[in-house]
Amino acid sequence: MTQRKSTTRMVPVPSHSIVPERDVDKRPVLETRHLGIEFGGLKAVEDFNLTIGRTEIAGLIGPNGAGKTTVFNLLTKVYQPTTGTVLIDGKDTAGMNTVQANKLGIARTFQNIRLFSNMTVEDNVRIGLHNQIRYGMFSGIFRLPSFWSGEKRQHEQALDLLSIFDMQDMAAMKAGSLPYGAQRRLEIVRALATNPSLLLLDEPAAGMNPHETEELMENIIKIRDKFQIAVMLIEHDMNLVMGICEGICVLNYGRIIAKGTADEIQSNPVVIEAYLGKRKED
After folding, report:
1. Residue 16: what pLDDT?
2. C-beta separation of 254 from 274 below 8 A
């Protein structure tokens, strides 16, 4: 697979972070301040500070067990933090649940695919469109014109979203019958259906072959450009991370050990040691 390089210029912002130059005059889509969580006295994530620009493609990387998925769970309110703050579009998410955080603009996919396997591809996407239902329960029960116009609109929206991955012809298929790569793509489409301002992708290339991963890279950029949203991904495929991520955050034992551009991260000795181990002295 051909490795690309992001040419985006990253610039500092007052929160001691960097964002793409095009986003510097816009409110960050995500800010975390001293975020942390303990499980039975064990600090799984500690003092996690991160800013993501409004249209940034960001990477969260680190060795297995570093706490990356725990961070995603904190951002989406699966877990409530022990310490710190999560701001989505400048709004504090303290006390919110996962549904409220999603309505605020944050959506995600999971390491393990979580589709409704016995439902159609289209119906999986339409579940994601629940935030955009415009008719009430009365209209639904009695099948009033507003119900049918809403159903038509959702059908069109679902097919439009599926077309991002050229999956519109699969709309009537059972989600569980799709090949693995297509199920991964469907999960991304369903997350997009909730109309997020920040899309979190947890190992989106897992199980994909090099050709599928190359297509995924192109589609992540396409999604960012089409919807003008930010994307943050956890990924072990370094070709993908270094090829499209503009800002990269490295986590180890629940703490940030480095932040920077792809070039800065690849040459950082602390990052190299975390992945490869410390070399023994001769």
Report:
1. 67
2. no
Per DSSP, the residues of 196-218 read: -SEEEEESTTTT--HHHHHHHHH
For 197-215, the pLDDT digits (tens) are 999 999 999 888 899 899 9
Give the C-alpha separation, 122 to 151, whole Å. 12
Q: How confident is the model at residue 138 (pLDDT cuts 50, 70, 90)?
A: very low
> Angle, nearest 10°, between helix axes 121-128 and 180-192?
30
Alpha helices, DSSP H, located in 16-67: none
H or E segment to which residue 107 belongs: strand 106-108
Cα separation, 5 vs 241, in Å, equals 10
Q: Say whether pTM exceeds 0.85.
A: yes
What residues contact 93, with CB distance under 8 A and at least 6 apart?
77, 86, 87, 100, 101, 104
Average pLDDT across the chain, whole number: 88
Handedness of CA 266, 267, 273, 276 (dihedral sign): positive
Radius of gyration of the chain (CA): 20
